[in-house]
Amino acid sequence: MLINSSVAHPARVYNAWLGGKDNYPVDQEAAELAAAANPRIIQAVRANRAFLGRAVRELSATAGIRQFLDIGTGIPAADNTHEVAQRADPGARVVYVDNDPVVLAHAEALLVSGRDGATDYVQADLREVDHILERAAATLDLSQPVGLMLIAVLQYIPDADDPFALTAALLDALPSGSHLVVSHPASDIAAEEVAESMRVYNERADEHAGATPRTHDRVTRFFQGTELLEPGVVELPQWRPDAGTVTDTGPLPMWCGVGRKP
Predict the structure, then answer these.
(1) pLDDT value at 15 more than 90
(2) pLDDT class of 2 with cuts at 50, 70, 90
(3) What are the DSSP calls for 169-186, one per residue?
(4) Under 8 Å CB-to-CB from 230, ≥6 apart: which residues?
(5) Which CATH architecture group holds 10-240+249-260?
(6) How many secondary structure helices (H) and strands (E) does the chain include?
(7) Mean pLDDT, rounded, for 218-234
């Protein structure tokens, strides 16, 4: 797949927000303009990475999850899913999925697993559910519980493509005891700033990579058929914060949660 550097792409814009170098001028422009419209973005993306780490640690420690399917991987940063999981259990297995060829170029970094564990990378779009599951089954035992990670990715699936049905199809293929981990931009926190930042991003994004923020009720709908873990669907810093962590950060326009498939 050819890299299109003329339009912004989610993984590269996210990389720019995190201060990375694996992006192009169009990504930097989109990142800067979106952050100018919504100054909370930088804090939110950092809080999002921290939520990912806490969720993986929690599932490893209390739910016994030893394998993860991480869709919407993004460009490698600190504490990727397999690094957190394999610190808890060196034998943990992780499959990453992303549709950006820049992420593919970094797959070698993603695939550096501990000796006892395993990682793999699948070049695919979230909409390609059957292909993702088929490829993931080469590394993961889909008869055993899986942590399904959909971190800041579902906003790139418009309502017309039914992100709720896609999430349900992925969960349907996983056994009881699997967990769904979701974070998602909010349209009902700092609504005007979020709407403007999404507008300037979408103007510069690939036509298939536009973003749609959603309300608390709509994000909660992704967990239909699961048992929501406490404290439910909340702002990023409020989900099981580490001891001593400051959680009163002011409003961060992203919802997150974790649900268990019964």
Answers:
(1) no
(2) low
(3) HHHHTS-TT-EEEEEEEB
(4) none
(5) 3-Layer(aba) Sandwich (3.40)
(6) 10, 8
(7) 98
